[in-house]
Amino acid sequence: MAEHNLLNNRIEMALLDTISDLIRVVNEDNQVVYYNQAMRLALEDQMYHAYDSDDYGFFDFRMTARCLAGGETIQRETYVGDVYYSVKTNPIRGHDGRIIGAVEVYRDKGVEKKLQIELVEKNRSFTEEQVNASAIQRSLLPPKGFMRALFMDYYYRPAELLSGDFFDVMQIDDDHVAFYIADAVGHGFSSSMTTVFISQTMRNMAPELLVDPTVAMLELVHRFRELNLPDTMYFTMFLGVYSLKKRKLTYVNAGHDCPPLIKREGNVRLLMNAGFPVTPLVEASFYECRSEYIQRGDELLLYTDGMTECRSGDGEQFGVDGLKKCFAEVGENPLTDITDRLEKFVQSEIVDDMTCLYLKML
User: Can you give the CATH number for the domain in which 303 is found?
Assistant: First the structure.
């Protein structure tokens, strides 16, 4: 009785009845002192079945004897009747380290296999959903080529199937073209849904709002806050509006710490501006609007931090200076030259979405 109580103190046996695995506990003499509920039911079932003479079934005590003698943990797989079990036998030690018993756990491998199949199926279904969501996200990107008095090209390389980067170029009216690049936190479903929100909000915004970058950004902030999303969801964005008649670019920056590059006659500089990111935490009341007169042949490069923060195999960061230098040296195919250099520089799996939008004013 004292020995049984000692085993009870070492194992909370009442808890074992809540476990679906079959469990039994033996004392140091290899005598059963406890079966859990699942094992008791299995033993009752086994009593009604006949087995070959060399099939001990649940009455096989050879492994527990070996465990008690040597103190080793024994793992094996075996059939009991028509069921295939994974069996693990562990010694139980007293406070003084002496072996006072053993616990043996039978796990139905058929159930485990079923769970594995279900997990594989769920993963397959989840991947299919991601692939479909990625296709939808890509379908929202603008077509490459000419739009009024500008030429557009882009590089879009998500780190995973879904991206938190997004951009668009939209004709507002006969005189104005709007373009933006945005970077939502993360790379999964939530960030991709944020980009869909941005796309649809900007595409459906009234022209009289969209033509003014400050007004358009404040409207976007207001609508985003109306979603009542968690504080951890936010995005940064650069928004520009180009007047074809005045050849004037006006722009605002909502926390996008990747200032666009403008190239004129081989010289590259940054279009600097600052502002709050778009977040549920703060409703910005103002975004400073700056302007730049554009000449024929000027080139713009909008990008996300995945372009500048990527690293080489030696840990060197490409950086804004690297991108500026690259942009200054490109030839007749600017975006191809830039991305070729970038991919040679990285030569490994990327950890952040890499996106850039190239615009040439005609």
Answer: 3.60.40.10
- Two tokens at 91? 């010694």
DSSP E strand stretches across 48-193: 74-80, 83-93, 99-108, 145-147, 150-157, 165-171, 176-184
Provide the CB-side half-sphere exposure for 230 (13 A, CA). 5
Quote the CA–CA distance of 250 and 293 in Å, as a whole number: 9
Residues β-bridged to residue 317: 311
CATH at residue 53: 3.30.450.20
Q: Is residue 120 part of a domain?
A: no
Residue 203 lies in a domain: yes
Specify the pLDDT at position 50. 37
Do residues 161 and 134 make contact, with C-beta atoms less than 8 angstroms apart? yes
CA 16 to chain centre: 37
Q: For residue 215, name the pLDDT band (cuts at 50, 70, 90).
A: very high
Looking at the structure, tell me whether residues 156 and 97 fall in a common domain: no
Is 197 within the bounds of a domain?
A: yes
**Do 305 and 186 sit in the same domain of this protein?**
yes
Backbone angles phi and psi of 236, in degrees to 5: -110, 160
Would you call 130 exposed, middle or buried from its count of C-beta atoms within 10 A (0-12, 13-18, 19+)? Answer: middle
Overall residue count recorded for the chain in this entry: 362
SS3 207: helix
Do 81 and 167 lie in a common domain?
no
In order, the DSSP letters of 252-282 are: EEEB--SPPEEEETTEEEE-------B-SS-
**What does the pLDDT average to over 161-177?**
94
Q: At which residue do the structure tokens 């509920």 appear?
A: 37
What is the pTM assigned to this prediction?
A: 0.68
How many CA atoms, within 13 angstroms, populate the side-chain half-sphere of residue 188? 4
Task: Output the six-digit token pair for 176.
Answer: 């104005």
Three-class SS of residue 142?
A: coil
Report the distance separating Cα 253 and Cα 275, nearest Å: 6
DSSP state of 175: S
* pLDDT the model gives residue 12: 67
Domain limits for position 296: 141-361
Does residue 124 belong to any structural domain of this protein? no
